[in-house]
């Protein structure tokens, strides 16, 4: 029908440019490196690249601290490289979406330089300034990366607020001039020919200083009043164009999903956190891992999938640059390998929504191991490590506990080949390569049994098969809901039904699957039919006789 959208039929691939491919061998990935690997992405079959930030930045948070929205960071290249990337991608039928980081800027952005020096400057109000109380900050809110979210600025004697690091001062979205400046910047990028945005940390833009109590804890997302701001952003900016907008939206509950991504929603789709933060303690401390079961995962997935049957659209993902690798999160250590990597792929890829692949996921890349705290690059990992020590962990325990969840796990160089540093760079990589690059890499991708080939087949199923219509728009239905080890669902429309069955455990399990199978469409198994058991990590994509 005519209200169908191009992004409903797309597969997105996230590139973290710093770690993707280093074309000039200075140890840091770059835009020319992305251009050189476009053929690889075309071979995989993706439609859209989400490019993590490449804007000018002092790189306190690897580019999520932007000092000029209309400039490119020197280590990544130039604006000419950016234009070339857009054009070269487009030549291959690949669209590009940028990361839109507008909850905050870098403290080195000219807006902030102007704001901080003079209380009467017209741009003072573009950031959030308050007087301290006594000798302390305005309140006791904590930043996401640890410590107070307030930083004292001696020039004017006030504090500015930062949800993330102190080099990432929050913009004041209550200020109409600031909002217009943001919309203009967005328009400028759209005019360059990009297809949309991944909208960073957007649920943090509304602060609720007048809410009762100034309780401790991390700054809260998705506060009352945010709707007005998001509605304006959507109406005055996004909706004037045909864009893919995907909101990073921690703090949005199921009953709020429709206002975010329903028919008149603010965004095309959003990243939920329920299924991805299953292992995360309430207070966000990585070294206090929370126990979770497959049941919790299934419940999180089914909750939003059921909603998407009625309205809205899902952004399907298991990994990104902030998360440990999915193999380490969801699979027990002894079971990690191509078999379980394919199982995880089948499980999330055929849900209702737009699948996102994070670089290296299609190869089965895994977490790395950290020998010392000096090997952490990520500021959040360093903060968590220090907090763990304060809570009485010894250095070894802290390293192990934080290492399991460190964002650096996802940021090690992409493993292209068996060559030194996994073929990422002949220079010294900014973050050491995972030592398994000689086994896990892109060299064997043409092997029909490779994880890469499996992803390719999944993409093909979604995009160019007799199941395309069904897998894109068919209804979602959970099956075997109470099975403790198996996740299963059916996608269904008027003329077809496809089931996905997956064993999450490193043991043979029994299943009672009461449907008649017409044909095995895809499997990671050597079996050609589903019996009453599933082998460790076995998965099947089946056509049913409706
Ligand atoms: O992350 C925002 C976010 O919500 C974080 O709390 C995220 O869950 C956290 O990084 C996990 O430790 C976005 C980006 O994805 C992240 O890379 C940036 O560091 C952050 O915004 C600030 O821009």
From TrEMBL:
One of its GO terms (molecular function) is alpha-amylase activity. Residues 14-411 form the Glycosyl hydrolase family 13 catalytic domain. Keywords: Glycosidase, Hydrolase. GO terms for biological process: oligosaccharide catabolic process. GO terms for cellular component: cytoplasm. It is found in: Cytoplasm. Pfam families: Alpha-amylase (PF00128), SusG_C (PF23915). Transmembrane segments: none annotated. Belongs to the glycosyl hydrolase 13 family. This is Alpha-glucosidase. It comes from Domibacillus enclensis.
């Amino acid at each position: 029908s005519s209200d169908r959208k191009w992004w409903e039929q797309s597969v997105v691939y996230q590139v973290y440019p710093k770690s993707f491919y280093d074309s000039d061998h200075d140890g840091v990935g770059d835009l020319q490196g992305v251009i050189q690997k476009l053929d690889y992405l075309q071979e995989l079959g993706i439609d859209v690249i989400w490019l993590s930030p490449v804007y000018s930045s002092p790189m306190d948070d690897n580019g999520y601290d932007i000092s000029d929205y209309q400039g490119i960071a020197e280590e990544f290249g130039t604006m000419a490289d950016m234009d070339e990337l857009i054009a070269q991608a487009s030549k291959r039928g690949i669209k590009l979406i940028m990361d839109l980081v507008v909850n905050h800027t870098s403290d080195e952005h000219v807006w902030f330089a102007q704001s901080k020096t003079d209380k009467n400057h017209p741009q003072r109000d573009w950031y959030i300034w308050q007087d301290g109380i006594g000798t302390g900050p305005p309140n006791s809110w904590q930043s996401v990366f640890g410590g107070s979210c307030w930083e004292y600025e001696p020039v004017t004697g006030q504090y500015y607020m930062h949800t993330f690091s102190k080099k990432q001062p929050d913009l004041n979205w209550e200020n109409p001039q600031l909002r217009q400046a943001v919309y203009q910047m967005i328009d400028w990028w759209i005019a360059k020919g990009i297809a949309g945005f991944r909208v960073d940390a957007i649920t943090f833009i509304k602060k609720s200083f007048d809410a009762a109590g100034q309780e401790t804890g991390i700054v809260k997302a998705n506060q009352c009043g945010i709707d007005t701001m998001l509605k304006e952003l959507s109406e005055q900016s996004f909706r004037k164009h045909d864009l893919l907008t995907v909101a990073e939206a921690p703090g949005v509950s199921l009953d709020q999903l429709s206002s975010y991504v329903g028919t008149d929603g603010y965004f095309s789709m959003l990243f939920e956190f329920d299924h991805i933060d299953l292992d995360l303690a309430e207070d966000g401390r990585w070294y206090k891992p929370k126990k979770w079961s497959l049941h919790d995962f299934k419940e999180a997935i089914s909750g939003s999938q059921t909603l998407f049957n009625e309205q809205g659209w899902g952004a399907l993902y298991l990994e990104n640059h902030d998360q440990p690798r999915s193999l380490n999160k969801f699979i027990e250590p002894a079971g990690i390998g191509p078999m379980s990597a394919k199982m995880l792929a089948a499980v999330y890829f055929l849900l209702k929504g737009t699948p996102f692949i994070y670089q290296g996921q299609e190869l089965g890349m895994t977490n790395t191991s950290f020998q010392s705290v000096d090997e952490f690059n990520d500021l959040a990992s360093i903060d968590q490590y220090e907090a763990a020590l304060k809570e009485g962990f010894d250095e070894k325990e802290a390293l192990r506990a934080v290492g399991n969840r460190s964002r650096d796990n996802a940021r090690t160089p992409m493993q292209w080949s068996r060559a030194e540093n996994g073929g990422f760079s002949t220079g010294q990589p900014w973050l050491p390569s995972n030592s398994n690059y000689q086994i896990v890499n892109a060299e064997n991708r043409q092997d029909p049994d490779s994880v890469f080939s499996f992803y390719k087949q999944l993409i093909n199923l979604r995009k160019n098969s007799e199941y395309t219509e069904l897998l894109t728009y068919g209804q979602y239905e959970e099956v075997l809901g109470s099975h403790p080890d198996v996740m299963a669902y059916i996608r269904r429309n008027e003329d077809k039904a496809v089931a996905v069955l997956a064993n999450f455990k490193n043991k043979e399990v029994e299943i009672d699957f009461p449907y008649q199978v017409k044909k095995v469409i895809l499997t990671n198994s050597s079996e050609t039919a589903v019996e009453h058991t599933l082998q460790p990590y076995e998965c099947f994509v089946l056509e049913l006789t409706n």
